[in-house]
């Protein structure tokens, strides 16, 4: 059963088997019913893989439980233990078969401390009768609220959106609320479904009503509808007297989910196209360089090529992440990628360059990431091009630090430093424009005979602030 339903490996199954060999002993010693539940693979539900009832005393259940699917709604302690890895003791619960029990759960763990199963002990809750007594006025009220109506007040079942159907032991419908009746009339053209066999009025629930499980929760697609069907057996003195069927229309929900998936696919496709187009531009520039151009033009074309490739890196990173929708890029990883690309592309062949990149992950939206990519490109490119003339080695250091939403980027080298009368060109103009306008930040250039350091500081706004600004800002691009 473990092999068929769970994702446990051989060693873990061996461990479950080892515990299961002791189950009878535990059941006899404690006089309680004992189970092992394991999580079903690719599912949020669990399955009972082993059980023992006390041979010394009274058992809670007469039907076997092994193979039964366990749902979180009914046995929250089991799933709490599964998630936290901690024991949950003496929790009062109503089992899927409607029996009041005192339940204790302790996790079974593998050698790495991961939970592979839950050992469960269930015993009779002694105050069951008292509770049932105190429940009876409530039961009475609920019953009235549910089914009895007069001309002025509708019953609860009348205004329920869910289709609510009661079926007797021979699976004939004894009650269907108005919403269920309308559904049956609209979809199957049957008026007055009460008294008819349930599988005739609602053919798709046939496997559900004939399931020998006490509780079934299934999603079924019928024509254009997605329906969540729940079936609970109704017991009286250990005999199945009928069943309650609840059907919820989840079509809108599934359609919305589908739309979201489609949206994600479209966003991914757009990112792909942007990236491919940028790479096509880069290829054209490369082709032009190879065709043989003057040394001066070659320099300009290579600079443009690097700028285009830096922007393309932003989209490569977005596309490599699992979730393309959230539009966030780690600017530290991005800068590292760009600096490495620039060093590999050359421009400083006589110098052995060492790149040091520091900083923990910092996420920025793609618009900001493009600006940061271009700033890093210009600054690292300047170090490669100007700092190490006639030197055999050099270090370029790219460092990010962050304090809440304030980010500081420093790009430094241990090169010759800038000449006194620096002639500003396009590179530093791009840096200035991007920092002051797109990043709303500041920068500082420090240069001496031991090298050059450029410090850039800017703020990454929090979501709320960004939305407010976007809503009120009418200028700009
Ligand atoms: N890290 C550095 N080390 C030494 N000199 C530098 C450094 N960074 C910039 N410079 C000096 O500052 C000048 C201006 O830089 P800027 O990036 O504006 O232009 P550029 O690199 O010459 O050309 P481009 O427009 O292609 O970037 C450079 O020509 C160079 O002399
Ligand atoms: Mg430059």
TrEMBL record:
Reaction catalysis annotation: ATP + protein L-histidine = ADP + protein N-phospho-L-histidine
Gene3D superfamilies, alphabetized: GAF domain (3.30.450.280), Histidine kinase-like ATPase, C-terminal domain (3.30.565.10), PAS domain (3.30.450.20)
Domain spans labelled Histidine kinase: 269-462
A Pfam entry, by short name: HATPase_c
Record InterPro entries: H_kinase_PdtaS_GAF_sf, HATPase_C_sf, HATPase_dom, His_kinase_dom, PdtaS_GAF, Sig_transdc_His_kin_sub2_dim/P
EC number: 2.7.13.3
Protein name per its UniProtKB record: histidine kinase
GO annotation (BP), single: phosphorelay signal transduction system
Species annotation: Pseudobacillus wudalianchiensis
Keyword Hydrolase carried by entry: no
Keyword S-adenosyl-L-methionine in annotation: no
Keywords, alphabetical: ATP-binding, Kinase, Nucleotide-binding, Phosphoprotein, Transferase, Two-component regulatory system
